[in-house]
């Protein structure tokens, strides 16, 4: 089941997977613990991979080797962050 979807500028669609064990989103930032899991298929439908983002991180943009978004700390202070993606 998909919780959210986001489309990259090049047409690749990122889909956040539903985890019934995850707590509801806090302050509209991000789901889950340890973090939201996004599935990333190619535009052809072939599987590109999955990306696990940090807890309380809302994805706002992504490239082929990075993700950007807003992180909320324990006091709900929001800070923009960019993370490099590592291929495994």
Topology (elements, then pairings):
Blueprint: E1 2-7, E2 13-17, E3 37-41, E4 47-52, E5 57-62, E6 66-72, E7 78-84
Antiparallel strand pairs: 1-2, 2-3, 3-4, 5-6, 6-7
Output the number of helix runs: 0
Shape: globular
The H-and-E topology, N to C, reads as: EEEEEEE
- The overall pLDDT, averaged over residues, is 79
Structural class comes to mainly beta
Structural features, described:
- It contains no helices and seven strands.
- The strands form two sheets. Strands 1-2-3-4 form a four-stranded antiparallel sheet, with no helix packed on it.
- The chain has strands at 2-7, 13-17, 37-41, 47-52, 57-62, 66-72, 78-84.
- It is 0% helix and 48% strand.
- The protein has 88 residues and is an all-beta fold.
- It has one domain (2-84).
Defining traits:
single chain; 88 residues; mainly beta; 4-stranded antiparallel beta sheet; 3-stranded antiparallel beta sheet; 7 strands; 0% helix; 48% strand; globular
Concise synopsis of the structure shown:
The protein has 88 residues and is mostly beta strands. The protein is built from no helices and 7 strands.
């Amino acid at each position: 089941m998909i919780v959210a979807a986001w489309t990259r500028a090049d047409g690749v669609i990122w889909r956040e997977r539903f985890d019934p064990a995850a707590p509801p989103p806090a302050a509209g930032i991000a789901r889950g613990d340890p973090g939201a899991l996004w599935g990333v298929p190619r535009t052809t439908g072939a599987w590109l991979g999955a990306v696990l983002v940090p807890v309380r991180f809302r994805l706002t943009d992504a490239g082929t080797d990075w993700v950007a978004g807003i992180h909320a700390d324990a006091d709900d202070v929001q800070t923009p962050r960019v993370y490099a993606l590592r291929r495994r």
